[in-house]
Specification:
Blueprint (H helix, E strand, L loop, with lengths): L2 H14 L2 H9 L19 H4 L3 H16 L2 H41 L7 H44 L1 H34 L4 H14 L1 H28 L1 H14 L3 H44 L18
Helix pairs in contact: 1-11, 2-5, 2-11, 5-6, 5-11, 6-7, 7-8, 7-11, 9-11, 10-11
Length: 325
């Protein structure tokens, strides 16, 4: 397979048919995520050592009094409601991502079938028959991966908590192993999703077909995965790089506020940083959508090339014009 031609053709498709950018934006929904936490360090400091401003001290004192007055069942109810809201938002984002993925796969395939112009409504309607299959596949795989990771990580974390350095030493190889495994599963899922859409398969048949394509074309697929993964990651960092500079107004305002002993510069710095973020956010979304559209289009073309899916049904079976010369 001529990977260079596949990559250049993917760019030609998304640049000519900019409606795919919209589907790329949708497909970007729900990608990534994170969380964090903190804990008590166990140390105690006096007010003089910390030099806490009175406003901050009153805030934490009021927060402490608030939690003292709240009943346990109220805290539990609040946590449950937050979890339900999180799950609802997660499902909505996953649904939008599925719509975007379907539009990109079908749009790329239609262009290769000599369709001159793509229509958003038509692509949206044509993706409906595959929506629940693709959505169900990704939900089931996501849950399976979550359960597997928890089954591996939780015991390792428990051992680390009991044995300290020994457990941590054992946890590092596990983390290193999970990285390539998760990467391989992601690439395999790309083949399964495309198989379901382009060959009109159910979930089980799609998994079997995707695995077959993945296994029989392992080198080509892994090379394409490396190119799109590393290249897409670098472009993604460049796109997000301006967000790093948004912290400078806030930091400058904080430094100026500490020097002048005033909160006005801090508020001004945060306001400027927030305004810059709001201005750049649409640009970030559009550029991220274009990147996602390109990656999905390249994967679709790769699948079509490897499986010899015909270009134009009216002219009979014929592989796409991306053969190795």
């Amino acid at each position: 397979m001529n990977i260079g031609k596949v990559l250049s053709r993917a760019w030609e498709i998304i640049w000519k048919h900019k409606v795919l950018w919209i589907f790329g934006i949708l497909a970007s929904c729900g990608q990534g995520g994170g969380g964090g936490g903190g804990g008590n360090t166990g140390f105690r400091f006096s007010e003089d050592e910390l030099n806490v401003p009175p406003q901050v001290e009153r805030f934490f004192f009021g927060l402490e009094r608030f939690f003292q007055q709240v009943e346990v069942w109220q805290i539990v109810a609040f946590v449950v409601i937050l979890m339900l809201i999180f799950l609802a938002l997660w499902f909505i984002m996953l649904a939008l991502s599925t719509i975007g993925r379907l539009g990109l796969i079908q749009g790329t395939a239609q262009v290769e079938s000599r369709v001159e112009k793509l229509n958003f409504t038509e692509l949206f309607n044509e993706g409906k028959p595959f929506f629940w299959r693709v959505l169900g596949l990704n939900v089931l795989v996501g849950l399976a991966i979550f359960i597997l990771v928890m089954a591996l990580v939780l015991p390792a974390v428990g051992i680390t908590a009991l044995t300290f350095d020994v457990g941590l030493f054992c946890l590092i190889p596990l983390i290193c192993l999970l990285i390539p495994v998760s990467w391989g599963i992601t690439i395999l899922l790309e083949q399964v999703n495309i198989a379901i859409v382009l060959e009109d398969l159910n979930i089980i048949s799609g998994i079997q077909r995707g695995w077959e394509v993945f296994k029989e074309n392992l080198v080509n697929i892994l090379v394409m995965g490396l190119i799109l993964g590393i290249g897409g990651g670098i472009v993604g960092v460049i796109i997000a790089l301006p967000l790093f500079f948004l912290v400078f107004p806030a930091v400058f305002g904080g430094i100026l506020g500490s020097v002048t002993d005033s909160t006005a510069p801090i508020g001004s710095g945060l306001a400027v940083a927030g305004l810059c973020f709001v201005v750049y956010l649409p640009i970030l979304i559009v550029l991220g959508g274009i990147l996602r559209a390109y990656i999905q289009s390249a994967w679709t073309l790769t699948y079509m090339k490897l499986t010899q899916i015909p270009q134009d049904e009216s002219e009979g079976p014929k592989p796409i014009s991306l053969t190795t010369e």
